[in-house]
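Below is one such protein, fold included:
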Amino acid sequence: MVLNYIWIGFFAVAFLIALIQLMLGNTEVFPAIMNSTFENAKTAFEISLGLTGVLSLWMGIMKIGERGGLVNTLARWLSPLMVKLFPDVPAGHPVFGHLFMNISANMLGLDNAATPLGLKAMEGLQELNRQKVDSQTTDPVARQRGYETATNPMIMFLVLNTSGLTLIPVSVMVYRAQMGAAQPTDVFIPILIATTVATLAGMVITSLYQRINLFNRVILGTILGLCLLVSGVIWLGSVVDRETMNQWSSVVANVILFSVIIAFIASGVRKRINVYEAFIEGAKGGFETAVRIIPYLVAILVAIGVFRASGAMSFIVDGLGRLVEWCGGNADYVAALPTAIMKPLSGSGARGMMVDAMQTYGADSFVGRLSSIFQGATDTTFYILAVYFGSVGVRHTRHAVSAGLLTDICGVIAAMVVAYIFFG
């Protein structure tokens, strides 16, 4: 619903701005708008077509990892931490399995597997909620309101999802490759840092809301470990020149990515599965995904193209840039902000903004890279809340929205900081 209004708004605002420009004597604005519709529709199709091969490759690799048991392994590694973050869930409850699997699948970029696992986890958490409400009251009105109210475990689970922690941001790197980036993986380390900061912030913010003891040995150790990791990379960026940092970032990113591929294949060999057939099965999903996103990408890129051709985008970006400069700040990042603003509302909208930024400024420009980091730093907060809460009939979301948006803000700030360290 939110994206519906945004999409309509792009066209409505573009039409009004174009009319004003026409009355001021700009007779080229409407031809430019119509030309942009054809050009961006063609661009969207070409991007989607080009995605087919790389998506098929990575989804095939991911399927091997899934069959090889890496998701289950990650679940076991996360178990001590998850028990502390979800104290209202009884120890050993089956819902932990779905929580583990969903978060692990998200970390590995297995979106197709993560969503059904997440919905199953929400069903389990709602069942616990019903049991608690039923034991506390017999008043049907109070019971119904209890069923429709988000619990602490639900909110923690969704905030961890909206923080968008992904070890392998495949889609962002694929789009960068499609847009002609010299080294599509150069944003891998910056994205990993930004999404780690967002996840850490989401964990802390939600724990403060829910009065979870952050000084617990497991939670504190996790927080300190993540802080040391991020601080170490930032310190390295302060003592090494940007060109060397960028070079090493690309080298490390490619070593890690190829190591992941080898680890996935090795896990399949160890499990004695048919690795080749598992890859083919996953690769088929990559082709289907590439075809499925064509209409969405056409819709959003055409809308953004119309918005930009009318002059509305320039008006907003230039206005923000002047405001930042008036306040004494560096306005280099302003042109990438539409991606950050759109991300909590719509994944496809933010993806379109990212592609538009790379198309306009260049994939290897500071704006193009920062847009890519914004895209990978967090997830679509409102979409996730709507889908997951809607699946179990929750209407009263309590602190879920505020915690999710505060997490997004932390992710955006982290993205800007690491972008300046690596590419500024």
Remarks:
- Residues 165 and 196 are 6 Å apart (CA to CA).
- The chain has one domain: 2-423.
